[in-house]
Design goal:
By secondary structure, the chain is of the alpha/beta class. The chain folds into two domains: 148 residues, HAD superfamily/HAD-like (Rossmann fold, 3-Layer(aba) Sandwich); 62 residues, DNA polymerase, domain 1. The chain is 45% helix and 11% strand. It contains ten helices and six strands. A six-stranded parallel β-sheet has the order 3-2-1-4-5-6. β4, α8 and β5 form a beta-alpha-beta unit. The model has no long low-confidence stretch (mean pLDDT 91).
Length: 219
Amino acid sequence: MTGRAYKLVIFDWDGTVVDSADRIVAAWLAAVRDCGLPVPAPEGVREFIGLGLDDTFQRLLPGTSQDLRARAMACYREHWALGGRHPSPLFPEVERTLKDLANTNKLLAVATGKSRAGLDREMRAHGLHGLFDASRCGDEAPSKPHPGMLLELLEELGVAPAAAVMVGDTEYDMQMAAEAGVAAIGVRSGVHHELRLRRFAPRAVLDHVGQLPAWITQA
């Protein structure tokens, strides 16, 4: 399918729409430290950005009890809120890109490991709510790379998998798209190296989402 034929463009949030990796890492490290858990290297935390909170904790600290993970996740949310008087900044050209796509009658959606409260808060802060037709969050569907988020969005919006494309910065986004039968476009703006993105055969890997309208027009 050509870029022009895609009806639905689905975006990851952290690392794709907003520049939030350093803030996420800082909140994770503070949370595990406060809970008396082994503190992972910052690079280890970055590895799992994009997954749901519980899945991230299970991968970072395997063998921890459910109760301890719940306490650590609550602590993470507290540190995130303390560090977040201002929302994570949008990457350059994101707002223009979203408006350009909406003006060409594309449906827009978000599939993110963030919580619903966190996503809604950042969408409101940036004035982006009205640009998206639907969204799924990490506390509403199975964690990436499970395809559940995408399958639910496709059903809600009445779009066939072949008419949708997923845009993200991690291999979890690429794998989720592959398992849902959806095309993928990687962006280099986030946490995973291009080689990891290409493992799942995305249609393209762009420097940032600002290049997306031109790719869709030319594809």
